[in-house]
Specification:
By secondary structure, the protein is mainly beta. 11% of the residues lie in helices and 43% in strands. It has a domain at 26-209. Strands 3, 4, 5, 7, 10, 13, 16, 17 and 18 form a 9-stranded mixed β-sheet that branches. Strands 2-1-6-9-12-14-15 form a 7-stranded mixed β-sheet, with no helix packed on it. The protein has a two-stranded parallel ribbon with strand order 8-11. A hairpin with a 4-residue loop joins strand 17 and strand 18. Helix 1 (233-244) runs antiparallel to helix 2.
């Protein structure tokens, strides 16, 4: 996958607003990263309201990370938000968000959020958005598709809250549909689809979410390390399982059929969720990239 270096754009007044006759916004965020002179640089950045991306920041270990924003403060019914990311051969990047994503009440039309990410040969992606908070009556359809070439690797995080916990609004949203698909050279590595409808599911009962307020998962995939060696996924599973026991969350770890592993966990508080996510990210990063976790700036 060859990417040309182009000038970044902050959008324009002509295309940053959706047609007046429709409900919601049509937002686009388009990013591309390439390897230049031994390090990763941002080659393309284009966006339309309400999506936006800040200037990238380089961590102490050289990792280029970038913060993605929804400047409207959240999604409403009728929004159609699409993010596309290309990470060129041997390029490395981490994508984060400024805060939790919020979805507000809908009158029947879903808020749609779609992300498509393509990784070139030997590319590295760390996709670490904050969790989604669906408000009462919210209807959300979200999807993530990651298309990988050989020797690329990725760490993907996804989490949702039961609602606005501080206001006692657990499982009051209308519907959440979510899909994650990861492929390598067009062959599926991981497919996950879920549909949560609180009005028709006993989410507070035993065997469901019970009294846990947050649901989260990490997917770690890669066919070889940056130095070319193959991964021992059983070692990652053991390390993740050990870390889970000391984070205040509950979960389980599984190996994928090939080239990956997954951990799913539940937490009662936002602090437990954050602490567990940070710990598991650190474990995954040491295993996949042979690097320690770093502290990023969100302000």
């Amino acid at each position: 996958m060859e990417l040309a270096l182009t000038r970044s754009s902050t959008g324009s007044s002509r295309n940053c607003s959706s047609p007046l006759e429709r409900v919601g916004r049509e937002g686009l965020l388009d990013l591309a990263f390439v390897r230049r002179g031994g390090r990763t640089v941002l080659a393309r950045r284009r966006f339309t309201h309400p999506l936006q991306a800040l200037e990238p920041v380089r961590a102490s270990d050289g990792t280029l990370y970038l913060m993605m924003l929804n400047t409207s403060g959240g999604m409403v019914g009728g929004d159609h938000l699409r993010t596309t990311v290309e990470v060129g051969a041997e390029a490395e990047t981490a994508l984060i968000t400024a805060s939790a994503n919020k979805a507000y009440r809908s009158m029947g039309t879903p808020a749609i959020q779609e992300s498509v990410i393509r990784l070139g040969f030997g590319a590295t992606l760390e996709y670490l958005p904050d969790h989604l908070i669906p408000h009462p009556g919210a209807i959300v359809h979200q999807s993530l598709r990651v298309e990988m070439e050989s020797r690329s690797r990725a760490i993907l995080y996804d989490a949702i809250a039961a609602g606005r916990i501080g206001r006692g609004e657990r499982w009051k949203f209308g519907e959440l549909r979510t899909e994650t698909v990861i492929t390598r050279e067009s062959r599926p590595l991981y497919i996950h689809r879920a549909r949560i409808i609180p009005g028709s599911q006993a989410l507070n009962d035993l065997g469901w979410a019970q009294d846990f307020n947050y649901l989260a998962s990490f997917v770690i995939v890669g066919d070889s390390a940056p130095d070319g060696t193959t991964y021992r996924w059983s070692s990652l599973s053991d390390a993740l399982d050990t870390s889970l026991r000391h984070c205040g969350a509950y979960g389980g770890v599984s190996e994928l059929e090939r080239d990956g592993g997954i951990v799913r966990f539940v937490a009662q508080s936002a602090s437990d969720l954050s602490r567990t996510a940070q710990t598991l990210w650190g474990v995954a990063r040491r295993f996949l990239l042979r690097r320690e976790a770093f502290a990023w700036r969100k302000f």
